[in-house]
Amino acid sequence: MKRAIVLLSGGLDSTTTLALVKKQRYEIYALTVAYGQKHSIEINAARRVAQWYGVTRHVIINLDLGLLGGSALTDDIKVPKDALGRGIPVTYVPARNTILLGLAIGWAEVIEARDIYLGVNALDYSGYPDCRPEFIRQFQRLSNVGTKQGVENKEYFRIHAPLIDKTKAEIIQLGTAHGVDYSLTHSCYDPDVTGKPCGRCDSCLLRARGFAEAGVRDPLL
Amino acid sequence: MKRAIVLLSGGLDSTTTLALVKKQRYEIYALTVAYGQKHSIEINAARRVAQWYGVTRHVIINLDLGLLGGSALTDDIKVPKDALGRGIPVTYVPARNTILLGLAIGWAEVIEARDIYLGVNALDYSGYPDCRPEFIRQFQRLSNVGTKQGVENKEYFRIHAPLIDKTKAEIIQLGTAHGVDYSLTHSCYDPDVTGKPCGRCDSCLLRARGFAEAGVRDPLL
């Protein structure tokens, strides 16, 4: 059976992506990176989701991006509340998807997987440059130049971002149609100590708007 | 003063690169990744070199690539001895330079550095796909698409590989002319517990040949 790697944060988008991959004939390898995010509770969500879908293997890698700073998700910068701003917000983690995809293709080489899935989306997103189709295309090109598999087998890697042109509402409708249990997921950037979502950060606001527009009840609330 | 990031492994090439950067007007930020390499003693070499050159900051990030496997440098695979083989050897670490450069551009965004230096070289190298000019060019393109700085400032990042077309002998001659003290560096993939080089792995063989061809004595021997 073909193998696929799914980047799994434990959030709504990556969980929906995993559900879509599950419908295809793949052995699934899930990769989660504990990059020093304040909302490290999402690692537990990733664990729950990986277990629920019975992935072949789930690897969690520690990588303290907080050492490099520069993001409200890893640093002493406050997570903004109550407003979906314009431009690239301070929750942007510098070069995160380049790093995550770098790890994914590294693993993919080892297990001989050609297909990498990630849940980025460019509509209803938070303005992150590394969630755009242009970035995904460039990364795919790079992966086929900078790896053993890419050099030895033409067009080896395929980077799939099946949600890239969907709104949050469309993602939730798609996931719901595929039976995703969104109570397993976590979205909030700034949960309290018990893990309860703040309801006011970008990620909570986008999630709430998505469920409202999809006409679905959020099982977390 | 402009800032530059130098990827510093503690080996001969990255140390020579640092010496070259030092001659220019830069504040230098050195980045070392402890990626689970068996020769973790090279981290100590990186520390010595960073200190010797008085870099502004030296960050060492832990990232256990051994979890993903696939390389003789991080895994239970034996480091080959006594032969510089053809093709890509088992000491290749899957996607290593993509991951390292991803971390470098992430940090560069935060400290507002545009220039990233790394010591890869495509001649006299070990056959690694991510040491070729084509890879460096692609990565530079990616970095200007997948980051905040790259999107907001046209052609922001410059990835420099000043040794890329040099032989090991030329690198040693260049470094020697720049006063590099190669006794600070470490090259062996498979040192003994005291840190003594094995003298027989690819990295030792390339180093020995380089010093011989350069007509310079290796201060480590």
Can you identify the CATH superfamily of chain A?
HUPs
List the helices and strands of chain A in order.
Answer: EHEHEHEHHEHH
Category by helix and strand content of chain A:
alpha/beta
Quaternary class: homodimer
Q: Uncertain runs of chain A with pLDDT below 50, 5 residues or more?
A: none
Number of strands of chain A: 5
Q: State the domain count of chain A.
A: 1
Biggest pleated-sheet summary of chain A: 5 strands, parallel
Name the chain pair with the biggest interface and residue counts per chain: A-B, 44 and 44 residues
Question: Class of chain A, according to the CATH hierarchy?
Answer: Alpha Beta
Strand content of chain A: 5-15%
- The CATH architecture of chain A can be given as 3-Layer(aba) Sandwich
How many separate helices of chain A? 7
Q: Given the C-alpha coordinates, what overall shape of chain A results?
A: globular
| Neighbour order of strands in the largest sheet of chain A | 3-2-1-4-5
Straight-line N-to-C gap of chain A: 39 Å
Overall average residue pLDDT of chain A? 94
List keywords for this structure.
Rossmann fold, 221 residues, alpha/beta, 35% helix, 7 helices, homodimer, globular
Report what the structure shows:
The structure is a homodimer of 221-residue chains. With 221 residues, chain A is of the alpha/beta class. Chain A has one domain (3-214): HUPs (Rossmann fold, 3-Layer(aba) Sandwich). In chain A, 35% of the residues lie in helices and 11% in strands. Chain A contains seven helices and five strands. In chain A, strands 3-2-1-4-5 form a five-stranded parallel β-sheet, sandwiched between helices. In chain A, strand 2 (27-34), helix 2 and strand 3 form a beta-alpha-beta unit. In chain A, helix 1 (12-22) packs parallel to helix 6 and helix 6 crosses helix 7 (202-214). The radius of gyration of chain A is 17 Å and the shape is globular. The mean pLDDT of chain A is 94. Chains A and B meet through strand 3, helix 3, helix 4 and helix 5 of A and strand 3, helix 3, helix 4 and helix 5 of B.
